[in-house]
Amino acid sequence: MTTLWHGRFKGGPAEALQALNDSISFDIRMYKEDIEGSRAHVRMLERVGLISESDREKILDALDQTEKEIDEEKFVFESSDEDIHTAVERRVTEIAGDAGARLHTGRSRNDQVATDLRLWVKREMKEISGLVLDFQETLLTHAKQSKDSYLPGYTHMQQAQPVLLSHHLLAHGWALSRDLDRLFEALTRADISPLGAGALAGSSLPLDPDGVAEDLGFSHRFNNSLDAVSDRDFVVDALYALALLGVHLSRIGEELILWSSTEFGFVELDDAFSTGSSMLPQKKNPDIAELARGKAGRLIGHLSGLLATLKGLPLAYNKDLQEDKEPLFDACDTVRLLLLALNGMVDTMKFNSEVMKQHADNPNSAAIDLAEYLVAKGIPFREAHAIVGSHVAASIEEGTDLADIVSSDERLGPEAAALLAPGAAVNRRTSPGGAGPEAVKVQIKEFQIQLDSQRERLKSDI
Ligand code: ARG
Asked: Which of 25, 54, 219, 277 is the catalytic position?
């Protein structure tokens, strides 16, 4: 077997070394980026006079053929194809002969792999952002359609105050919009070309890293060759954005699990987005939501795992860095699947507005309105809180209607008791950003504007 370093070595690699060292099984996923990087590199080599025009054309043709072979799954891998960079160069050299042997001029796999991975992160962050936007759109559509439906809002998982369903749904929408900002940020941080850094120190050849960066659509080239080949903080940034997005999806999942339970009965899941039980015929399970909750753990693990891998590494490239790709690929795959499945689940589920309303109309959830009624009459809030609290306690102990107790208290009376009427409390949440219809109307507009501008940003060449 011929290795890339055969000139210096007497024998081939041990099987165990190869099994541990090879990354082709997973970095094959970057073949498009690897070939794209090689095209830019070879064009640069010709521009600066390091190879002839005819060699450039031969290499570019060989790269096209290699890409086609991999596309069509006709590429024949060899045991010496340690990673995607080795495999592509080996094939190009087979096809283009001497010209192919010039491809690696002024380049190392160290700057090559960093380039490939940065291109990969840029594309992936864009595509995942598109899926987040689609999910936000679904939440917004439900928010608009839910009109004046309301449900109990909770703190400590205890009923607190009624909120519009649209308000609740958009709470998740806003969290996702911050996730989008983080995905964009990860994209921006990946947007620096390391090609031209060589193994670690640049080159004695007249390379043009700026030209290559431009050719590959990067905003900038690296400033420091050591940093360029040894830094993977752009991967950490992506993993962080994905882990936090995963945490948000997990929280949505957790609520859907509760809401679809018999005890809550707030939503009914579509058959296509729920599962049955192998034993219990009546079951309809929210597996997607549970997996959203479960997979957040794995996304957090990928982030902390890579941080741990990086923490002790001296400059510059160390093979430990090969551990950057699997967590990244898996995190992207996981988040994509989750977004698609959750989007479908939320899109198709039915809200039981009547059930939500029944729970939200518990008069105790309007207790704060009674206290605020007293505040408006000049009673200090602490005192008002105690008065209403004692009425709530009495109604629970005696099993009497809170409204009756309130009516017969002269400080409150029938006018205050009317605040306990079904639907009254939610309508009174008028403060900006609040849970009532007036404030939510404004919020829906704000959310739409935010969504449109993030969609525009994604379309533009960030
Ligand atoms: N497969 C390697 C990786 O993923 C590519 C870089 C190898 N460089 C080296 N000097 N051995 O990191």
From this structure: 277
